[in-house]
Specification:
This protein has helices spanning 2-8, 22-31, 46-55, 57-60, 72-80, 95-105, 116-124, 140-146, 166-171, 186-191, 194-207, and strands at 10-14, 36-40, 63-67, 86-87, 109-113, 129-132, 155-157, 177-179. By secondary structure, the chain is of the alpha/beta class. Helix 2 packs across helix 3 (46-55), helix 2 packs parallel to helix 11 (194-207) and helix 5 packs parallel to helix 6. The longest helix is centred in the C-terminal third of the chain and has 14 residues, at 194-207. The two termini are 20 Å apart.
Length: 209
């Protein structure tokens, strides 16, 4: 997944009250240039959507993972449903269990962090990359500062990243950025407005160039 992120420089985080069809959602994003898709536990019945997306991944070309993973049970459930990577919002009491579940399954895990101490903890737990959330609170300059003590550590900003500031995060040293509602508006996901999602994904990718 890290090689994919180095190439695309973006992954999409989907937060919606319902996903009308996870396969069509993934196909729309890939058509717009985004291959890494994070479906989150804030969407009800997530395992069903993961199974649909994962079972059609060879067809769509998407790499599909689970986000907002907060427990070891979440991690195992998502892996059983076909998740190809796991992402957490932070480091709760079960962060180690989540990381261990990912290692056992042979898939990447991206633990959330905000402070340098949390980045160190994420790395100690074996995080393959570290999600910095909420990134907009301190902005791109914070990523430049983090690169001082953590050179070469793959950092991914999430939260408040949009087409207007994504390039600045990348220029400050981020491995890739998380695109949220700027690309996948919840209303579009629920209604199945796939052409609109493709167009927004294309626009976001162009903003990174």
């Amino acid at each position: 997944m890290l090689d994919l992120l180095r190439a695309d420089r973006v992954l999409t985080v989907v937060r919606a009250p319902e996903i009308s069809d996870a396969r069509d959602l993934c196909a729309a994003l890939v058509a717009g240039g985004i291959h890494a898709v994070e479906l989150t536990y804030t969407t009800p019945d997530l395992p069903r959507h993961l199974e649909r997306a994962a079972s059609t991944a060879a067809e769509t070309g998407a790499v599909v993972g689970a986000g907002t993973v907060q427990t070891g049970a979440h991690a195992k459930q998502a892996i059983d449903a076909g998740a190809q990577f796991l992402v957490t919002p932070g480091q709760g009491p079960e962060a180690a269990a989540i990381a261990e579940a990912a290692r056992a399954a042979g898939i990447p895990v991206v633990l959330g962090a905000f402070t340098p101490s949390e980045v160190m903890t994420a790395l100690a737990l074996g995080s393959d990359a570290v999600k910095i959330f909420p990134a907009h609170q301190l902005g791109p300059k914070y990523f430049k500062d983090l690169n001082g003590p953590f050179p070469g550590v793959p950092l991914i900003p999430s939260g408040g990243v949009n087409a207007g500031n994504a390039r600045d995060f990348l220029a400050a040293g981020a491995l890739a950025v998380s695109a949220g509602t700027d690309v996948v508006a919840p209303a579009d996901v629920v209604a199945g407005n796939w052409q609109d999602i493709t167009a927004k994904a294309e626009a976001f990718c162009k903003a990174l160039q």
